[in-house]
Design brief:
- The protein contains 3 helices and no strands.
- By secondary structure, it is an all-alpha fold.
Length: 71
């Protein structure tokens, strides 16, 4: 998955794919939950503050047995 789907970019210096995902999350929040997006913006809470740890752990930890991991 890391190579085939380009997920490796989550872990490259500067975290380019994580930064892209932050922008997508911000846009999705604004479109789907505008009140929540406005509340977070008012508190200067950007996706990088709460989404980065989650994004970086999505592909490195799993409750499944190691034999089921695809990468």
């Amino acid at each position: 998955l890391m190579t085939r789907l380009g997920l490796r970019a989550f872990y490259l210096p500067g975290l380019p794919l994580a930064i892209c995902a932050h922008g997508a999350l911000e846009g999705l929040l604004a479109a789907r939950r505008p009140q929540l997006a406005a509340h977070l913006d008012a508190g200067l809470i950007k996706p990088a503050l709460y989404a980065t740890p989650w994004l970086l752990s999505c592909f490195i930890s799993s409750p499944l047995p190691p034999s089921t991991i695809l990468c």
